[in-house]
Design goal:
By secondary structure, the chain is α+β, with helices and mostly antiparallel strands. 53% of the residues lie in helices and 11% in strands. The protein has 26 helices and 17 strands. It has a 6-stranded mixed sheet with strand order 12-14-13-15-16-17, sandwiched between helices. Strands 1-2-3-4-5 form a 5-stranded antiparallel sheet, sandwiched between helices. Strand 7 and strand 8 form a beta hairpin. Helix 17 runs antiparallel to helix 18 and helix 17 crosses helix 19. About 2% of the residues have low confidence.
C-alpha cells in the first residue's frame, strides 16, 4: 500500500463522504434515499449512475463499474490506489505519517484516542455495576453463570440504551466530537444527527497486547430484537482487526510457557476458559483468522489447538484457519467439541477435566480431516474409498515435511485398504492441480500488478454471472440481515456448488456466523472487483420482496426451490449410476433407497 498504514486508509475512507467527493466531479440529483447522474465513464442520455450515501458506494450500470470512494477516483483520475488515498487524505485534512510511527501528529492523535477508549470503558463498567437500566445485562450474565469477578477482570460494561448518552457523557468529560467520531463511538444519521454507535448492549472491551483498550464488542441483550447479535468497533487509527487477537494481553505469558495456543471462536468462550484455569487461549476479533494472526501466534507458540464450534460454520472456519496456520509452519491440532456445544457451554455443564481431556486428545489436523472424510463417505465401498482418497490426496500434497508426509500417506493407505502406489498417484494428480492453480494465480497477480498502476474508466471486466435464485437470496439477506440465522440453519452448502454467485452467498453467511459482519461496505472490501461491481448494482436495485407472503416465508420458499433443484440434479446422477453394471448389489440398493427418498420429498420431479 506504498507505506500507507491500513488504519490511515480507514480514517481517510470515513473522513470522505462519497456524495461530496463524487458531487465535485458530476452533478448529482436526489433520487429517493440515493443520488443519480449521467455516467462519468460513458456517454449517455438517461442517468444510469447511482450513489448510495448510507452504504458509501456507487454503481454505474452503463459501464458495470461499482465500488467505494477510492475506486471512483482510481477510475476517473486514472490513479493507483495509493495515489487515490493520498488525494482524498489531502482533501479531508488527514495527515499521512510519512515519517512512520515517530510522526508527532500521529502520536498525539493516538494518545487522545487511547485516553478516550479507557475513559469510556471505565464509565460503561461502572454503569454495569450500578445503573438500574443495566439490569438486563446483569441478568444476562447471571443466566450464563458469569460471575461478577470475571466480568470485572475483563472490564465488561453496559452502553446505555439512550440515543446519545455516551456522546453527552464524553463531551461533558472533555473529549472532542472529532475524537468520538474518529473512534467510531459516534455515528451520523442521513439527516446529520449524531448518535451513539453502541446502545443498550453488554460491552466487551478489546485490548491490544500491551493491555490498552482500543475497541469494543457489543452483545445484544434482547433475543427477540431483529439486529446483529454482536456489533464490533469498525477499524480506526488504533484498531486494525487483523492485528488483534482477543485476550492476548492476558494470555500471552501462559501461551509462551505452554508453547501452545488454544484458538477459540468467541470472546465468551475465551473468558470461560480463563475462569476455569485454562489460560493459553486466544480468539480472533470479529473477523476471519488472518495471516497476521498466524504470525502473531508463531512468535509465541509451536502449536495451535483449534477449538471451534461443531456446527457447519465453525468447521468451515476451522478449515480456513488450518490453511493459514500451515503456511506459517505451525503444528495444528483439532479439538473435537461434542455436537451442539462450544467451550463456554461445555465448561458450564461438565467438569473442567472433560474439556482438558478434549484438548489433550486433540488430533493432528491431518488425522482429524481423515476421520471427517471417512465419516462423510462410506469407505466400505470402492466409490467411498475413491472419494476419500481424492480429498485427502489434496491435503497430503500440501504437507511440506517429507517425513510427516510419508507417515500420513502410509496411514491413509492402511485406513482405506488401498496400495501405497494407488494413493501416490492421487497425490501426484493433486500436486499437478496445485501447480496449475499457482501458475494461474501468479499470472493473475502479474496482470493485476500491471493494471494496478491505473484503472481504465472504460467497460468493466466480464461481469459476474449470478444464478437468479442466488441473486434473490442475496438481495433478501442484504436488505433483511435478521433472516440470516434462519437461512444458515437450513441451507445445505451442496446446493450452492457450481452456481454463479454461490461463493458470494456462502461468504456472506460465514461472515455473519462468526460475527465478522459489520456492514456491506466492509464485506465488499474483501471481494474481488467483479463481485464488488455486482454487489453495488444489487444494492442499488435490489429485487422487490413479494407482498403476498412474509419475508420469512419468502426465505423458506427460496430454500425449498434450491433444495428441489439440487435434488433434481442428484436424482439424474443416481438413476444413471444405478444402471451401471459394475456396481455391487449393496451400492445399487443404497442408490435406489436415496432415489425413493427424493421421490417422496418431491413427487413432481421429472423422470
Amino acid at each position: 500500500m506504498a507505506g500507507i498504514p491500513p488504519e490511515i486508509v480507514e480514517q481517510v475512507r470515513h473522513a470522505c463522504d462519497i456524495v461530496d467527493v463524487i458531487g465535485s466531479y458530476v452533478p448529482l440529483k436526489k433520487a429517493g434515499a440515493k443520488y443519480k447522474a449521467l455516467s462519468p465513464f460513458n456517454k449517455e442520455k438517461t442517468p444510469s449512475f447511482y450513489v448510495d450515501p448510507s452504504r458509501q458506494i456507487f454503481k454505474c450500470f452503463s459501464s458495470g463499474h461499482g465500488g467505494d470512494v477510492f475506486k471512483f477516483l482510481m477510475l476517473l483520475e486514472n490513479m493507483t490506489f495509493p495515489e487515490a488515498v493520498r488525494r482524498l487524505a489531502q482533501r479531508a485534512g488527514v495527515v499521512i505519517p510519512e515519517n512512520g510511527p515517530h510522526d508527532p501528529q500521529a502520536r498525539s492523535r493516538r494518545e487522545e484516542l487511547l485516553a478516550l477508549h479507557a475513559a469510556v470503558a471505565a464509565w460503561w463498567q461502572k454503569l454495569l455495576k450500578t445503573d438500574p437500566a443495566a439490569e438486563p445485562a446483569r441478568a444476562y450474565l447471571r443466566n450464563r453463570d458469569f460471575p461478577d469477578s470475571l466480568a470485572e477482570e475483563f472490564g465488561l460494561g453496559f452502553a446505555p440504551d439512550g440515543f446519545d448518552g455516551t456522546l453527552k457523557w464524553a463531551q461533558k468529560s472533555g473529549y472532542s466530537l472529532e475524537a468520538l467520531e474518529t473512534a467510531r463511538l459516534v455515528a451520523t444519521s442521513e439527516k446529520g444527527t449524531r448518535y451513539d454507535f453502541f446502545r443498550g448492549r453488554l460491552m466487551i472491551p478489546i485490548h491490544d497486547e500491551s493491555g490498552q483498550v482500543v475497541a469494543f464488542s457489543g452483545r445484544l441483550l434482547d433475543p427477540e430484537a431483529k439486529a446483529q447479535k454482536y456489533v464490533n468497533s469498525p477499524e480506526t487509527p488504533i484498531f486494525v482487526k487483523s492485528r488483534i487477537l482477543f485476550g492476548l494481553n492476558k494470555t500471552k505469558r501462559p501461551i509462551i510457557e505452554a508453547e501452545s495456543a488454544v484458538l477459540c471462536e468467541g470472546q465468551i468462550d475465551l473468558m470461560r476458559c480463563w475462569q476455569k484455569g485454562i489460560r493459553h487461549v486466544v480468539a480472533p476479533q470479529g473477523t476471519a483468522f488472518t495471516d497476521q494472526h498466524a504470525r502473531i501466534l508463531k512468535r509465541l507458540a509451536k502449536e495451535v489447538v483449534i477449538c471451534f464450534d461443531a456446527d457447519r460454520a465453525g468447521q468451515n472456519a476451522a478449515q480456513r484457519s488450518i490453511d493459514v496456520l500451515m503456511k506459517e509452519g505451525l503444528q495444528v491440532r483439532i479439538a473435537r467439541i461434542p455436537q451442539g456445544e462450544d467451550p463456554d457451554s461445555l465448561l458450564r455443564k461438565q467438569p473442567v477435566t472433560v474439556f482438558e481431556n478434549i484438548l489433550r486428545e486433540a488430533k493432528d489436523y491431518t488425522r482429524h480431516l481423515l476421520d471427517a472424510a471417512c465419516e462423510e463417505e462410506d469407505i466400505s465401498t470402492p466409490r467411498g474409498r475413491g472419494a476419500v482418497a481424492q480429498k485427502i490426496a489434496q491435503l497430503i500434497a500440501k504437507i511440506p515435511n517429507a517425513v510427516q508426509r510419508e507417515g500420513f500417506l502410509l496411514e491413509v493407505a492402511r485406513r482405506l485398504q488401498v496400495t501405497r502406489a494407488v494413493l501416490e498417484e492421487e497425490v501426484r494428480k493433486a500436486e499437478a492441480q496445485q501447480r496449475r492453480t499457482e501458475t494461474q494465480q501468479r499470472n493473475y497477480s502479474t496482470a493485476q500488478e500491471e493494471s494496478s498502476s491505473a484503472v481504465a474508466p472504460g467497460t468493466a471486466s466480464e461481469p459476474l454471472h449470478v444464478d437468479k435464485m442466488i441473486e434473490a437470496m442475496l438481495s433478501l439477506l442484504l436488505t433483511n440481515p435478521e433472516l440470516v440465522p434462519l437461512v444458515s440453519r437450513r441451507l445445505n452448502p451442496a446446493w450452492l456448488e457450481g452456481l454463479g454467485g454461490g461463493e458470494v452467498l456462502s461468504n456472506l453467511l460465514d461472515a455473519h456466523a462468526h460475527d465478522a459482519w459489520e456492514d456491506i461496505t466492509h464485506f465488499m472490501e474483501e471481494c474481488d472487483d467483479r463481485t464488488k461491481d455486482y454487489l453495488a448494482g444489487l444494492l442499488l436495485t435490489p429485487q422487490p420482496a413479494p407482498t403476498e407472503v412474509t419475508l420469512e416465508r419468502h426465505a423458506d420458499q427460496l430454500l425449498h426451490n434450491m433444495d428441489k433443484r439440487w435434488k433434481q440434479q442428484r436424482l439424474q446422477i443416481l438413476e444413471q449410476a444405478s444402471k451401471t453394471d459394475s456396481l455391487s448389489t449393496e451400492e445399487k440398493m443404497k442408490y435406489l433407497v436415496e432415489i425413493q427418498v427424493i421421490r417422496r420429498q418431491f413427487p413432481d420431479l421429472n423422470r
